[in-house]
Amino acid sequence: MTRVLFVCTGNICRSAMGEYILKDMLDRRGLSDKFYVESAATTTEEIGNPVYPPARAELARHGIKCDGHHARQVRSSDYDNFDIFIAMEDWHKRTMRDRFFNGDPENKIVMCMDLAGKPGQIVDDPWYTGRFSEVYGQLCEACEGLIERYS
């Protein structure tokens, strides 16, 4: 089983969307038993909060539910419990590597859009841009790449 943790700043937009998009794709393909998927934040501002309403609305437009989500912060102990950490932007990767994971000795942290074959591209924070549909599309591409690479 491949254990995946999506990570962004607050765990209410990008990483949460990634979690639920991937779970939906896996369920539709009968691959849910091959992956374990969660999401987390690098910061503490949104701990305990549900998915941000516009992100929830974007997921709902595609028939994806995210009920019961509560934002949490990534922990040092996650390093032993997950196989891959998906960072939305360089800052997330650096924060995980430096603050939580002692430098990522097993190279478990990957950039989200690298999975989509678009190295160097980041997933902008829709909290600021309002582009939830664009982020949805980026995350779908990355999830497709992840499934192809790890299943």
Question: Can you put this structure into words, describing what you see?
Answer:
- This protein has 151 residues and is an alpha/beta fold.
- It has helices at 14-28, 53-61, 78-81, 90-100, 126-129, 132-150; strands spanning 2-8, 35-41, 84-87, 109-111.
- The protein has a 4-stranded parallel β-sheet, with helices on both faces.
- The protein is globular, with a radius of gyration of 14 Å.
Structural class: alpha/beta
Question: Would you tell me the overall average pLDDT?
Answer: 97
Oligomer: single chain
Q: Numbering strands along the chain, what is their spatial order in the largest sheet?
A: 2-1-3-4
Main β-sheet description: 4 strands, parallel
Strand content: 5-15%
Number of domains: 1
Element pattern in H and E = EHEHHEHEHH
Shape: globular
* Overall CATH class: Alpha Beta
